[in-house]
Amino acid sequence: MKHVTLYRKYRPTNFDEVAGEKDIIKTIRNSLKRDSLAHAYLFTGPRGVGKTTTARLIAKGVSCLRNGITDTPCNECENCIDINNNNFIDLIEIDAASNRGIEEIRALKEKINYQPVKGRKKIYIIDEVHMLTKEAFNALLKTLEEPPSHVIFILATTEPEKILDTIISRCQRYDFSSLSFSEASEKLLEIAANEKKEIDIESLKLIYKKSSGSMRDAISILEKVISSSIEENIVLESVERILGIIPKEKIEKFITIIKSKNIKEGTVFLDELWNKGYDLEGFFKDLAYYIKDMLVSDNKEFEISEYIKIIEIIFDVLNKFKNEEDKRLLGYIIFYKILSENKTDIKIIREMKETTINKNLQMNTKEISKELVINNNITFEMINEKWKEILNVAYSNKISLKAMLFTAKLYKYSENIIYISFPKESAYHRDMMIRDEYSSILENAIEEVLKIKIKVKYVLLGNNNIKEKTKDDFVEKLIEFFDGEIK
């Protein structure tokens, strides 16, 4: 038998089964009872909160053969069954993300003049309507201004601010919101019971938090947990293991590291999480929620302003770099930025112990003086003088280079090759810079500023032979990284 996901299996088939949005559901049900539906609706809100489900229930309420236009469709007549099985010819669902052009809307306009085949109305559900092009919106607007009496439009979107005001003004708008824990947990408990599983309250809280109030996501997470659990009783420990949730103890340890402002320990900690396969983006979201809980608790380890600032930094960085595939890089940026926001950090950083580096490069190359001038008359000093300008040009083309080169130093120049050094603990950053997607951008920036093509090599330095004070360099790098001043 074909497998049906829990979300589809338990998708509401009548208005009584819809979780949340009681006021919206009540209003729509009253409209069905009075046969006074609008010709166009706009449903807005986060993903997975019931916008499309409600739209389909309207279609069922309009099309039921046994009960007529009703808020209690029978779910037994031919039309109700077809709608439940996604086979109803007069219910047309359009994904605007993949059908966003004016040609698709023109084709729709041509078809809407045809009378419904089996139902009383033709219902068009346009999902993610904000994805339509401007031309498509204008074409849709003309249809909404003078719609045929046998057509109902239901537009759904997660980003209403992108929809033309003229479109919104011609629709009856309903704003859906994320479900509360009580609303979501009631549905999850019902599903678990039907699937012969028992689940504790702590597990429900975790599933709800991971779903961000989306009923669809919560059910999908529950299905993953049920599929992976052989026990009849589902407990928090098994849910954390199945979902790859980072244990609370590690979050608490990281908060301790933030309090101690230990740059090296924090970097090593993030590397360990990454190497063990943990999701760093998920870790920082969990950290933000944990800090939120600390904010409202009596046990406060930071000032309230510090709590708020940390949460702001986490979501600000995640939003700015949402397309960055390297999540470990995001972790470094968030951690360094949290520390740099505290104006007392400069004192902490200046108290860092002197570190040692190994002058012996981990590559087969001869030692060459930094002042060596080669036949193109470029010297190390000339490069060093222009280095900040070179980096700014590179950063303007790929902002994530800032984090990649955060611990790097301009090491030497020899035989038309610039050597950039990284400390041992930044081997990951060195390896990333070797990739063409990063190295080519830096080499192009060098060529743009110095007007000459120069090769760049990236090397690791060890921890013996030469001692260097790195504390002032680190302070300067923090200031450069965040384009500000640490006092």
Question: How are the elements arranged and paired?
Answer:
Elements: H1 6-9, H2 22-33, E1 40-44, H3 51-63, H4 78-84, E2 91-95, H5 102-111, E3 122-127, H6 134-145, E4 151-157, H7 165-168, E5 172-175, H8 181-194, E6 198-199, H9 201-211, H10 215-228, E7 233-234, H11 236-243, H12 248-260, H13 263-275, H14 280-295, H15 304-320, H16 327-341, H17 345-350, E8 355-358, H18 380-397, H19 401-404, E9 409-414, E10 417-423, H20 427-434, H21 436-450, E11 455-461, E12 465-468, H22 471-481
Parallel strand pairs: 1-4, 1-5, 2-3, 3-4, 6-7, 10-11
Antiparallel strand pairs: 8-12, 9-10
Helix pairs in contact: 5-6, 8-10, 9-10, 9-11, 10-11, 13-16, 14-15, 15-16, 18-21
Explain what you see.
- It is built from 22 helices and twelve strands.
- Helix 8 runs parallel beside helix 10, helix 10 packs across helix 11 (236-243) and helix 14 (280-295) runs antiparallel to helix 15 (304-320).
- It has four domains: 6-175, 3-Layer(aba) Sandwich (Rossmann fold); 181-243, Helicase, Ruva Protein, domain 3 (Orthogonal Bundle); 248-349, Zinc Finger, Delta Prime, domain 3 (Up-down Bundle); 356-468, GMP Synthetase, Chain A, domain 3 (2-Layer Sandwich).
- The chain has a five-stranded parallel sheet, covered by helices on one side.
- The chain is globular, with a radius of gyration of 30 Å.
- With 487 residues, the chain is of the alpha/beta class.
- Helix 5 links the parallel strand 2 (91-95) and strand 3 (122-127).
- Keywords: ATP-binding, DNA replication, DNA-directed DNA polymerase, Metal-binding, Nucleotide-binding, Nucleotidyltransferase, Transferase, Zinc.
- Its EC number is 2.7.7.7.
- It holds the Pfam family DNAX_ATPase_lid.
